Amino acid sequence: MGEKTGGTGFYRVLSRRAALFVLTLGAAAFYLLAGVAGLSVGVLAEPTRRPIYSVETPQMQVALGLNCAWGNEDIEEILAVLARYDVPASFFVLGQWAERYPESVRMIASAGHEVGSHSNTHADMTNLSEGQIQRQISESLETIQGLTGVRPTLFRTPSGAYNNQVIALIEQAGLYPIQWDCDSLDYRDLTADQMWARISKNLRPGSILLFHGGTKNTASALPQIIEQIRAEGYEFVPVSQLIHPRPYTVNFEGRQRPA
Questions:
Q1: Which of 232, 238, 257, 259 gets the most CB atoms within 10 Å of its CB?
Q2: Helices 75-84, 218-231: crossing angle, 10 deg rounding
Q3: How many domains does the chain have?
Q4: Is the same domain home to 5 and 89?
Q5: Mutual orientation of helices 75-84 and 102-110 as an angle, nearest 10°?
Q6: Alpha-carbon distance 160 to 214, whole Å?
Q7: What is the DSSP string of 57-102?
Q8: Is 192 left (phi over 0), alpha (psi -120 to 50) or beta?
Q9: What global pTM score does this model have?
Q10: Which residue range(s) make up the domain with 10?
């Protein structure tokens, strides 16, 4: 009788140890997978919010985006090229740039291109407080709307820097956070051939292209870039026409899809 009772106790202890081992193994597996996925552990992290880098679409469409944060000396030439090729573009302008070059902003809008915000001062928004981020957004929107009569719906963060808080506050302001998947690196004074070599590697339906105003070669390179993209069978549309309306999802690579 005593041996039977002792045996049961032994197996109960063994069962507890086995259960503890399974729980420990499961926890270790979770921490390992979370580390691979880049999540913080201890407390489940908020899923990473991502801006829109490109768009899932069956249409052979791409969008041409230009950031305006430096000079305005090439804006008229860029607008002339876009008019000659009948290409709609999306300009992302700083609030301060708009204040410095109000006529350029009016020219862009009058030519039928959409004007989005690139923040107010080009600060790294990941280093700002919630209130400072909100001011970067609101002040730029007020300036742009005051010049164009249209409130922007698109926002591109300075240098493409973002975190969950930045994306959340952009979306709370009713804006779409926009990045790019085809970077021309035009600000490095590349030639048209060099820009095309970079763009062509990533170009696909739903791509968003990144160019800049105030650079050495952008205006002169655009004709060749536009012709080569069209030769691939693509149509240019504004970013606001390319993206899906809310609700939508953005996957791990920043590709937007309908919800």
A1: 238
A2: 20
A3: 2
A4: no
A5: 0
A6: 18
A7: -SS-EEEEEEEE-S--TTHHHHHHHHHHTT---EEEE-HHHHHH-H
A8: alpha
A9: 0.83
A10: 1-45
- State whether residue 42 is helix, strand or coil: coil
CA 96 to centroid of chain Cα atoms: 21
C-alpha closest to that of 103 among 93, 88, 89, 116: 93
Q: What is the pLDDT of residues 69-106, one digit of tens each?
A: 999 999 999 999 999 999 999 999 999 999 999 999 99
* pLDDT per residue as tens digits for the range 194-238: 999 999 999 999 999 999 999 999 999 999 999 999 999 999 999
Distance (Å, whole) CA 161 – CA 133: 12
Q: Residue 104 is part of a domain; what is its CATH number?
A: 3.20.20.370
Backbone angles phi and psi of 173, in degrees to 5: -80, 0
Classify residue 198 by burial, with Cβ atoms within 10 Å: 0-12, 13-18, 19+: middle
Torsion of CA 113, 114, 119, 122, to 10 degrees: -20
**Tokens in use for 217?**
């070669």
